[in-house]
Amino acid sequence: MTDSRDIRLPTGTGGKSLKEQNRWQLWLVLAANSLFFFGVVRANAIRIDGVRALFSDASKLLPIGFALVISTVLNGLLSADNKARLVFLRWRYALPGHRAFSEYARSDPRIDPVALAKLHGSAFPTDPADQNRVWYRMYKTIEKESAVHQVHRDFLLLRDYTGLCALFIVFYGTAGFYAIPSVKIGLSYLVLLILQYVVVRQAASNYGIRFVTTVLAQKAAAPEKSAPKKAARKSKAGDTMAP
Prior knowledge:
Layout: H1 18-43, H2 48-54, H3 61-77, H4 80-88, H5 100-107, H6 113-120, H7 128-142, H8 146-179, H9 183-221
Helix pairs in contact: 1-2, 1-3, 1-8, 3-8, 4-8, 6-9, 7-9, 8-9
């Protein structure tokens, strides 16, 4: 498990949270996977015709609605830590913030390590938990920047999608072996679920790392605040203005 002192990647800023903004997209993911699963079961084949046939009989849609509810509940059971483990394939210190300075600050060409070190004011931390804390403090100062906000939202969406993919493998994949008459089709369906997880997990990992490096790049590139210029002295009495 991750250290209890760790600070997790935040979930959103003021107003409508990022997770709420992503909810409708996750519903589409749930609906598409549920429809495809029941289409395969009904047609005993992996083809679009099986999905289309579901809409010809309204009663067939009832199990889909039930599956959506179940999948939503199960997704809520996955903690942020477990989703991070599924995405980054690490048990401890899974978040990329834990390697923000030891790895990513030196590998991203957008980041100026010298400027970043000057901003930090001391040597970069090496302990994973400390790295995450320092990175988080930097993030909080620029969390409303459009580039940071967008990549954060993309990461959260794909992180939750990855969690759903894992659940689809466990529940839909297992159910497929019982509900799909053909063993070959059942195995093919399971392979598709695993492939979906592999692709989405990689995309989520890329966005998570991009989130961390974008924060560091934005901080390193931010101009230093200079002291306000002193007001010009008023002209002495009797002085003349330049023509």
